[in-house]
Amino acid sequence: MQRELSDEELIRGFLREGQQAAFRTLFERHRRRVYAGCRVFLQNATAAEDATQETFLRAFQNLGRFVGGNFPGWLMRIAKNVCIDQWRRQKHQGDAGEEEFAKVHQGESLEDSIVFRLVTRKIEQAMTQLPDEQRRCLELKIAGYSYEETAVATGFSVQAVKSHLQNGRRMLWLRLSKVLDLEG
User: Fold this and answer.
1) Does residue 2 register a pLDDT over 80?
2) Where are the alpha helices (DSSP H) in the chain?
3) Fewer CB atoms < 10 Å away: N or C end of the chain?
4) What are the tens digits of pLDDT across the range 106-119?
5) Residue 163 exposed, middle or buried by CB count within 10 Å (0-12, 13-18, 19+)
6) Closest to 166 in 3D by CA, of 144, 133, 143
7) CA-CA distances (angstroms) from residue 144 to 18, 66, 148?
């Protein structure tokens, strides 16, 4: 009976000897975890499948850069970056939201509508100035993710997510209180 090769042994076999089966084994071993993380992050099965494929394509292309250590962690960082890239593309494609905005806010006065849009833009601008970790945690929280889902999507611990959210909210409040003349 053969023993199961470690991730490091499979990587060496793939890099040194070009063993395609070694990479296939890595894929089979880690694809469910990568898919689950992408699914939580993107909230869409098809997008998660695409992100999983892209993750393993990037891993395949960059496996020579892996310096050893925690292969699943390295793979999940790639998955996180792929998901963020997909999320940004979707966000930019969805920026035709002016029509949506008009439909939702038909009952408001023009002045209220303009103020709402200006405040929304100020919030978005202030969020871009936050550190990436805080901004990403806040974006996921705004989108309705739980602490646990945010932790899976970002690769942070639940405690780190809570900390990033608290610090991000504090920084956002400080920035917005100056810009929007809020009193705290």
Assistant:
1) no
2) 7-17, 20-42, 45-62, 71-93, 97-104, 110-128, 132-142, 147-154, 158-179
3) N
4) 455 555 556 666 67
5) middle
6) 133
7) 44, 34, 11
Number of residues assigned to the chain: 184
Which of the four CATH numbers 3.40.50.1460, 3.10.310.40, 1.10.1740.10, 1.10.3080.10 does domain 7-91 have? 1.10.1740.10
DSSP code per residue over 78-122: HHHHHHHHHHHHHHHHT--HHHHHHHHTTTS-HHHHHHHHHHHHH
What CATH code is assigned to 97-179? 1.10.10.10
Structure confidence at residue 105 as a pLDDT band (50, 70, 90): very low
What pLDDT shows up at residue 115?
62
Q: What is the pLDDT of residues 21-48, one digit of tens each?
A: 888 999 999 999 999 888 888 888 888 8
Residue 95 is which amino acid?
A: D
